[in-house]
Design brief:
Length: 209
């Protein structure tokens, strides 16, 4: 069975303190993992080289350059524990409205590695939380919404460039036939906008099965 990476993004009311504490500890543990920091620094330094190798004269990708392999490893290592994700409930979220949450799943790869490849280190650094994992109160979300939209809601021309890079990544690492890169790119800004209009906070968690 293929490994599946998941990114769950949802509007959230003030969750119980035990969950907030568990979430903070989980993200801190991932963020300060020495291997994660080493992979992150390598990707930031070599991101311009994270280009799938192509056969001369052909557009078909053959394999990943070494920095690309490290980017995919970085994405998997920054997933949160499955138990933390399965503990999410309507009680934790403060609602059971399906229109206020979205799930993005990709076979064979982490959906966030695809997004990272599209937006690059500068874009990733501008987003709140740590590499797609975040828990924001309503006032915090309003403060960072312009940054989210600045990265993930680019001009039409830049959007096509980002989606093109993401599609190339899916073609090499994941299952391009099963995944629309726009679903990954739009997941966070769409839910952030809906949450901000309520106003509510925002929860985003990444895991794999």
């Amino acid at each position: 069975m293929s490994r599946v990476g998941w990114w769950w993004v949802s509007a959230v009311r003030d969750p119980p303190e035990p969950y907030r504490s568990s979430f903070r500890r989980a993200v801190d543990s991932v963020q300060h993992d020495p291997q994660v920091q080493a992979l992150l620094q390598t990707w930031c330094a070599e991101s311009t080289g994270v280009i799938p190798a192509h056969e001369p004269g052909h557009g078909r990708p053959l394999h990943l350059a070494a920095p690309a392999s490290r980017l995919e490893e970085l994405a998997w290592r920054t997933h949160l524990d499955e138990a933390l994700v399965t503990s999410l409930s309507s009680e934790v979220l403060g609602h059971d409205d399906r229109s206020l949450q979205t799930f993005v799943g990709t076979r064979k790869l982490s959906p966030f590695s695809c997004l990272l490849y599209g937006i690059g280190p500068t874009g990733a650094d501008a987003l709140p939380g740590f590499l797609g994992n975040m828990l924001l109160a309503a006032d915090e979300l309003l403060a960072v919404l312009p940054a989210i939209e600045g990265v993930l809601v680019p001009s039409p021309v830049e959007r096509e460039k980002v989606l093109g890079r993401m599609a190339a990544w899916l073609a090499v690492v994941g299952d391009a036939a099963d995944t629309d890169p726009a679903e990954i790119l739009d997941a966070l800004p769409v839910m952030a906008e809906r949450a901000a209009q309520r106003p509510m906070g925002l929860l985003a968690v990444r895991t794999d099965l």
